[in-house]
Amino acid sequence: MEGTILTVIKEVAIATEAALGSAKDAYEIFEVAVRAADEAVKRTPELLPVLKQAGVVDSGGKGLFFILEGRLRHIQGEVA
């Protein structure tokens, strides 16, 4: 269903595939993935009326974003 984690995964896949030709390395692709996940999560309330009514974003999509962001931060050497 649109507006769920499936939408976020789809948007990440589309964005990373598009970046494959121009990205310098895998790190840059990972940055694209994190940005795409963040943007997709922010749009979930517009895609799923129950989320908009509750004033929230999709929790599964947000969780996926946190996983991707955490991995990127680890790659950057950030400590939790």
Write a concise keyword list for the protein shown above:
80 residues, mainly alpha
- Can you summarize the main beta sheet? none
Q: DSSP strand (E) fraction?
A: under 5%
Instruction: Give the averaged pLDDT, no decimals.
Output: 95
Oligomeric assembly: single chain
Strand count: 0
Gap between N and C termini, in Å?
Answer: 33 Å
Low-confidence segments, given as residue ranges, are none
Order of helices and strands: HHHH
How many domains, in number, for the residues? 1
Helix content: over 70%
Number of distinct helices = 4
Based on CA inertia axes, which overall geometry fits? flat
Task: Output the structural class.
Answer: mainly alpha
| Rg calculated over all Cα atoms | 13 Å
Can you offer a commentary on this structure?
The structure is a single chain. It contains 4 helices and no strands. The chain has 80 residues and is mostly helical. The chain has one domain (5-75). The N and C termini lie far apart (33 Å). The mean pLDDT is 95.
Brief digest:
This protein is mostly helical and 80 residues long. Helices cover 75% and strands 0% of the residues.
SSE layout:
Layout: H1 5-19, H2 26-47, H3 49-54, H4 59-75
Helix pairs in contact: 1-2, 1-4, 2-4
